[in-house]
Design a protein that fits this description.
Blueprint: H1 2-34, H2 38-42, E1 44-45, E2 52-55, E3 76-78, E4 106-108, E5 129-131, E6 152-154, E7 175-177, E8 198-200, E9 221-223, E10 251-252, H3 263-266, H4 270-289
Parallel strand pairs: 2-3, 3-4, 4-5, 5-6, 6-7, 7-8, 8-9, 9-10
Antiparallel strand pairs: 1-2
InterPro entries: Leu-rich_rpt, Leu-rich_rpt_typical-subtyp, LRR_dom_sf, LRR_domain-containing, LRR_R13L4/SHOC2-like
Organism: Didymodactylos carnosus
Domain Disease resistance R13L4/SHOC-2-like LRR: 89-155
Length: 290
């Protein structure tokens, strides 16, 4: 009986907290609709991406003005620190109220000092592009998997030591940049990103690539340079869209202690890699049959 009463009390407390949170959000939105802030006047149409955009930097962004979370028409929010504005004006955290901007398609947080993203980012259901390069991230909230429209995520130059597994649950991703981190392994489940076209893992500490990295059908750009990779998967030649001869920037593999295939073979491109493994397989079969 005592346990039952305790459970009821906990349930009631949780209901009250949820209700209070919703009331706070609604009250905030009501005040924001009435307010004619200077930030609304700064909103402009973005010709490149298409949509209503607000760009803040320097003194105007630190601290982040709470009024901007009432600009519900925003589709693009750019809070990237510009070098000309002085790096002393860097954001160290993103407020949970970011979830109020439910129309956001592009969120740019580059060149700041953010060490964590709030779980509320997962409520931005219309988000297509998230850029958080040159920050201090080492983890990502699991709520990112709720972003079913997210196609592009930029996480270069952060503090990741482990590949964020939540990323492989965002099946809509086409562009993923984790360059210039400290990642030492790529998960076997990387092939869940079946629509991936660009994968940038340049300058990490990766030693082994899983065989599943060869399953990508649409991959056209793969940067693996400056890692600790000694061997490529035997089916690497399946990545036919990595045409290094026609498009040299489609791949980067230099700066690895490659043995199989050796670097002088790898730099020639996918066809050379494919021929190398075919030759190795032929020699092994020949030895077995003799």
């Amino acid at each position: 009986m005592f346990n039952t009463n305790m459970q009821k009390e906990k349930g009631c407390s949780l209901t009250v907290l949820i209700a209070a949170s919703k009331f706070k959000a609604l009250a905030f939105r009501a005040r924001a609709r009435r307010a004619k802030t200077k930030y609304r006047k700064q909103i402009e149409d973005d010709r490149r991406w298409g949509g209503r955009k607000l760009k803040l930097s320097g003194r105007s962004v630190l601290p982040i003005p709470p009024e901007i979370f009432g600009l519900f028409e925003l589709e693009i929010l750019d809070l990237c620190t510009e070098w000309t504005s002085g790096l002393e004006y860097r954001i160290d955290h993103l407020p949970r109220e970011i979830s109020y901007l439910f129309r956001l398609r592009i969120l740019n947080l580059d060149t700041n000092a953010i060490s964590n993203l709030p779980s509320e980012v997962g409520e931005l259901k219309n988000l297509e592009c998230l850029t958080v390069t040159c920050n201090k991230l080492n983890t990502l909230p699991m709520t990112l998997k709720k972003l079913t429209k997210l196609e592009s995520i930029h996480l270069a130059s952060n503090y990741f030591e482990v590949f964020p597994l939540v990323l492989v649950q965002i099946e809509s991703l086409k562009f993923l940049d984790l360059s210039c981190n400290r990642i030492d392994a790529v998960p076997v489940t990387i092939n869940k990103l079946k629509y991936l076209k660009t994968l940038l893992l340049f300058s990490n500490k990766i030693e082994i690539l899983p065989d599943t990295i060869c399953d990508f059908i649409y991959l056209t750009t793969l940067w693996l340079g400056d890692n600790e990779i000694k061997r490529l998967p035997k089916q690497f030649g399946q990545l036919k869209r990595l045409d290094w001869d026609m498009y040299p920037l489609s791949s980067n593999i230099a700066g690895n202690p490659l043995v199989s295939p050796p670097l002088n073979i790898c730099v020639k491109g996918i066809q050379a890699i494919k021929a190398y493994f075919a030759s190795v397989s032929f020699k092994k079969n020949s030895l077995i049959n003799t």
